[in-house]
Amino acid sequence: MTSSLFPWNVHGAARAGRPPLSPADWPEKEKPLLEACQQLARAKGVPQILSLAWPFPGLNPLAALAQELSLLPLQHLPSYCYFAHTVQGERVQVLGWGSLRRADLAGEKRFQVARDFVQALQPHVHTAPAPSSPQERLLCFCRFGFAPHSGGGAALVLPRWQLLQVQGEVTVARLNLEIGPDSDLAALAGQIATFFAHMQRLAQAPLPAWRPQPPLEVALAEEALLARIEKALQVIRAGSLEKVVLAEAVDLALPSPPAIPSLLAYLEAYHPDCSVFAFALESKGDFPPQVFLGASPERLLSVWQGRVQIDALAGSAARGSTGPQDCRLAEELLRSPKNRREHQWVVRSIQEALGWLGMDPWISPQPRLRRLAHIQHLQTVIEAELPDHVHLFDLLAQLHPTAAVGGYPQQAALQWLAQLEPFDRASYAAPLGWVDLQGNGELVVGIRSALIEGKRARLYAGAGIVADSKPEQEVAEIRLKLHALVQALALRPPDPLGP
Question: Which of 76, 166, 188, 219 has the smallest number of CB atoms closer than 10 Å to its CB?
Answer without folding.
Answer: 219
